[in-house]
Design a protein that fits this description.
The protein is mainly α. The chain has helices spanning 3-35, 40-66, 72-89, 92-161.
Length: 162
């Protein structure tokens, strides 16, 4: 084969791989959306940033491989890569990965609950103690205030008599 044909096949292969990578990365975004619920605004911002990054990546590939010239078979190659990825993987990847990550996060959360349970009980015991002492100090403050007020009244009466 001539050098030009090999170069064109390499370019086409890279565009197919670019389509595969773009779809794979977007599937990870979809997994994250399943794990953490997103609103419309956040989803739109994520999509905008994703497609902006993809546009920059595709432009870099076109610039590096084909001197920045847009060729229709490069777009066709990317579309074939995306279609092939969807044909082979479909939504199984998203279901499996979101389930696995959800189970791992659940396990870590439960493990943290078990490990931090003594600290939690210590926190609540300390909180109860502090609240109890606060009530006692408030009563003590009121008692001292009444005594001092009474003493002050007594001192005024003694001073007024003289």
């Amino acid at each position: 084969m001539s050098r030009e044909i090999v170069q064109e096949l390499t370019f086409f292969t890279h565009s197919v791989l670019m389509g595969l990578v773009i779809t794979f990365i977007y599937d990870w975004i979809r997994v994250l959306r399943r794990l953490f619920k997103h609103g419309t605004v956040l989803t739109s911002v994520e999509d905008l940033l994703f497609w902006l990054a993809c546009g920059i990546g595709v432009f870099y590939m076109l610039y590096r491989e084909n001197d920045g010239t847009l060729r229709w078979f490069a777009i066709l190659g990317a579309a074939i890569g995306m279609f092939f990825y969807k044909l082979v993987v479909q939504d199984a990847f998203i279901n499996v990965m979101s389930t696995c990550i959800h189970k791992i996060m659940w396990f870590i959360f439960r493990l943290l609950q078990i490990v931090l349970k003594p600290l939690k009980s210590l926190y609540f015991t300390g909180k109860t103690f502090v609240l109890h002492m606060g009530k006692k100090l408030k009563k003590c403050k009121e008692f001292i205030k009444k005594r001092l007020t009474g003493l002050l009244k007594t001192i005024r009466m003694v001073l007024c008599k003289r």
